[in-house]
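Question (not urgent): is this output format expected?
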Amino acid sequence: MATAPSGSPSGDLLVPAGPPVAARPRRALIPQFGGIWGFVIRRILLGLLVLFIVSIVVFAATQALGDPARAILGRQATPESLKALRDQLNLDRSVFSQYWSWLTGLLHGDAGVSYAAQIPVSDLIDERIVNSAFLVFCSAIISLPLAIAIGAYAALRRDKLFDSASSLITLLFAAMPEFVIGLWLVVIFATTVFPGTLPSITQIPPGGRPWDDMTAMILPTATLVLTVTPYVARIMRASMIDVLESDYVEMARLKGLSERTVLIRHALPNAAGPAFQVIAINLAYLAGGVIVVEYIFNYPGIGSALVDAVNNHDIPVVQALAMLIAAVYVGVNLLADIGTILVTPRLRTRL
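Got this back:
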């Protein structure tokens, strides 16, 4: 009896398999975009989702502050006056209706009306936003180049005197909260050690701008610089050391390139990638952490406005400032992600 090549009976001959059937591609739930623009679009969509979730959390948290009507009228308010004020502030509607009205207002640039001042929130915080933005700008243009320079040079002088000294000093300042640094600066330059050298508080007259008196900006700016610089410098040092020990930097040196060319064209761009993420976090921190510094120096920015709004149960102002800080966090991190891709060649090839 004839058998198949495998030795089985002829009745059990195996039928040769046909060409493999290609699996049907699965349709992605989220549209996929390629290249750098696809990456940017995905990050923007993710950022919008984060802001939507933050809006829910902020609205729910502000509802726990208590009854705004009772906070405004006081404990002696009558039930009739409380009801009338709640009707005026639209607090008698459902929570979902209040949230939807607030969210749609934000999307149209309307943050509502301040409960305490009875003026639009945008009019109340416009000048505060400008003041805080100027303080953050002054701090950033000093701290970021300074931190990158310290970190990069410390990596080049690894285990030398500058590296040891800078590591100790940055660790010391990184361990201190910003209010401690601010109080020490006030004691040294304003009150005790060198009294009257610099103003201890920032006084901006109505209608004035912080750049009208730059002397009053020195201590708040110095506090933020000393707070932010250590973190970025330490990350930059670690990243630079890792890059300097990499194979492609060693190959560039073996090709006969000058040390300056190796550092500028090969080492710094790749070392700056991780540093960008830390820079983004610290810039976002400046937007929110500036609250403490503004309180210490009586600086009229969003920090003092947020503190006043919480004390006055001014919910629209609290909500607007919280969403503003969240938007800054999302926007700065988006820019950092894009900057990391642009300056890091090995990441661009993966898109």
